[in-house]
Amino acid sequence: MADEISRTAVAEAGELTKSQMREMYHKMLLIRSFEKLGRELFQRDLIRGTTHTYVGEEAIAVGSCAALEPGDFITSTHRGHGHCLAKGGDPRRMMAELLGRSGGYCGGKGGSMHIADVELGILGANGIVGGSIAIATGAAFTSDYLSSGTVSVCFFGDGAINQGAFAESANMASLWRLPVIYLCEENQYAEFSPARRTRPVEDLSLHAVPFGFPGITADGNDVLAVYAAVAEAAARARRGEGPTLIVAQTYRREGHHVGDSADYRDSEEVADAARRDPLERFRLLLLRDGVLEEEEAAELAEAAHEEIMSAVEYALASEPPSAENLLDDVLAE
After folding, report:
1. Residue partners of 108: CB distance under 8 A and separation at least 6
2. CA pair distance 146, 139, nearest whole angstrom
3. How far apart are CA 46 and CA 41, in angstroms?
4. Cβ atoms 114, 106 nearer than 8 A
5. How far apart are CA 290 and CA 293, in angstroms?
6. One-character DSSP codes across 43-55
7. Hey, which of 163, 239, 252, 264 has its CA 20 to 30 A from 270?
8. How far apart are CA 118 and CA 124, in angstroms?
């Protein structure tokens, strides 16, 4: 029944071709492979600082970015690798950035939580909880001021929706009808705490009510449902009707960061989330609808793995930043 609802929603938002759906599945596989290899590199002490994986949340990034146009903007979070890959980021430059190499997007100086590519509309990840909400709102203001027709999507977690930055930005966006989509990834955990213990309201979409714009809930494990929700919100924004809050319900399959054993979670809860894996769910749907054959699905998975392995090789072959350019690209006031 859920799959039928997804297809109906997609039909209303605009049909996807078989080629588009294959590309969406490929990007989900790419994100999963990137995160698995990134975790391995961290465990081999090749990544400094820390890193936060996006395993289990791939449908949100891919479904959202598939509904956008090339000129649209996104802002990301500390758990941002999936958003960047879904928007077209280069896995080689991303992996090099994780490893602190000069071939990375930020010359190896930003690391896992600060990847950006303005030319692709990726305005950057952010290690501050809720730190990108105002940035996305500012990008939407610029779009409105210039009448460029672009839309901004701000990804943030269910912990960040309680930050003052959301209320201030949402108020401004509603008042000026800015073309921004606030996309809350409700992954059930705020760092090490179950999110349900940190909020008085269960339905996070109600956070849109005081500001007078739509707040909707979508199945964040269903890439087609996310696509349909974002496509509708983007169309609304381009018509000048203002912002939308989308709460995409999913589950953080791994710990808060690599190294977090997540032993504060119930094993059955984790097993239940694994049974609702967004990649497997989409694969089965594509096979059932004749979009893919089993062999094609296996080939896409292998191609994604090889692409990320190639990215690792590129990153390892890239030199660390030199001492001579240590202060380049650093802004201090």
Report:
1. 96, 97, 99, 100, 101, 102, 318, 320, 321
2. 11
3. 5
4. yes
5. 7
6. HTT-S-S-----T
7. 163
8. 8
Look at the chain and report how many structural domains it folds into: 1
Going by the DSSP 8-state scheme, the letter that residue 90 receives in this structure is -
pLDDT tens, position by position, 64-101: 999 999 999 999 999 999 999 999 999 999 999 999 99
Query: What element of type H or E holds 140?
Result: helix 133-146
For residues 163 and 171, give the distance between their C-alpha atoms in angstroms, rounded to a whole number. 13
Specify the 3-state DSSP secondary structure of 333.
Answer: coil
Instruction: Show the tokens assigned to 14.
Output: 């605009």
Top pLDDT among 196 and 95 is at 95
Q: Whole-angstrom Cα distance, residue 146 to residue 152?
A: 14
Distance CA 282, CA 35 (A): 19
| Residue 307: C-alpha distances to residues 37, 156, 159, 166, 304 (Å) | 11, 27, 33, 37, 5
For residue 200, tell me if it sits in a domain: yes
pLDDT (0 to 100) of residue 8: 58
Domain range enclosing 136: 2-319
Q: What six digits make up the tokens of 57? A: 């949340």
Query: CA distances (Å), 201 to each of 111, 162, 248, in order?
Result: 35, 11, 16
User: Is residue 236 assigned to a domain?
Assistant: yes
pLDDT tens track for 254-300: 888 888 888 888 888 888 888 999 999 999 999 999 999 999 999 99
List the beta bridge partners of residue 73. Answer: 152
Supply the pLDDT for residue 274.
87
Judge contact between 89 and 27, C-beta under 8 A. Answer: no
Output the domain CATH number for residue 125.
Answer: 3.40.50.970
Domain presence at residue 260: yes
Fill in the amino acid letter for 12: E
Local structure of 164: helix, strand or coil = helix
What is the Cα gyration radius of the chain? 19
pLDDT higher than 70, residue 10: no
Is the residue at 172 inside a domain? Answer: yes
